[in-house]
Design a protein that fits this description.
elongated; Spore_III_AC/AD; Stage III sporulation AC/AD family protein; transmembrane helix
Amino acid sequence: MDILRIAALGTAGVLLGITVKGAKPEFALLVTVGAGLCILAGTVGKMQYLLGMLAQMKSYLPVDSSYLNTLLKMLGITYVGQFSAGICKDAGYSSIAGQIELFARLAVLAVSMPVLLALLETVHDFL
């Protein structure tokens, strides 16, 4: 039921931002960024749960921990990129938001290259 709380917080932040934008447009961005940061703080508990589950998976499977670390890095890159691009779009800077999204995609690709190479080596050794 956390999604209902987060959705209500996000909707309240947007409605408050729209209301403030009519009176003081310079504060509307601060309201939406504040709501976004509150939602980000709410995801910390979920991330702790995910980290615990990944540690449990690591104990069950003989998987190199660097692969799980790479997965976490990719998740972090995509979340931070999407969050900051959303803020830029809200502020009216969609071109900068597009550049942030492009950089996040390239960063995920760069981080995932060692995993892809290990997969290709495994397939090559198998054949």
